[in-house]
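User: Fold this; tokens only.

Assistant: Input:
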Amino acid sequence: MFYLQRQCKTSCSCTHPQSTTPVPDPVLIGLTGGIASGKSTVAQWVSASGVPTVNADELGHRLLRTGHPGFAEMVAAFGEEILDEQGEIDRKRLGAIVFSDPQALERLNAISHPWIRRMANEAAEIAAGIRKDRLVFLEAALLLEANWAVLCTEVWVVQASLATVIGRLTSQRGLTAEDAQKRLDRQWPPERRQPFADVLIENEGSLQDMKHHVDQELAQLLNRHTPC
């Protein structure tokens, strides 16, 4: 629980302790799913409905910029070879290192996850202020792997079959089937995510079908958290 101090007026000469006004924590709804599952599409629909969304991937990108305290930690861990000509971290160079070396990926996560969690908490606290129900979605591909689900009141999981995901990665993102499989191998499979899901959204049919499902779940969510 967060608290805001209620200040006495300057003309007040009272000596009693200042009272506090409780400010409820954000009601954080975790939104996750594997690559090409449709998670980001669901996040866009959630935002369009008026419920703010914090994107953990975008926070991670901010971490890589000069000026952020985590920038120096990244360079110290992986060397100046990850920097481009302007002295910024090149995500492709960094990715080439961490996605070919499990230990390097662990180092990356050990640096980035605490920073992203801290920034997500701060962003959610700000975003929650625009709604009486304090609802905020946290969109994070690694929500479960990073153990951020403990921050959430509910977890929504978006998933699609392996064949569907590989088809999207090859046709929409230009990956080979082999490269697509390598990326999938670095993530949790759907069957490992499912037990954590309070809401499971299947993305196998049309976008219209999935949108209808998301709208139904959002309506129920808002009903559950409508302030008395």
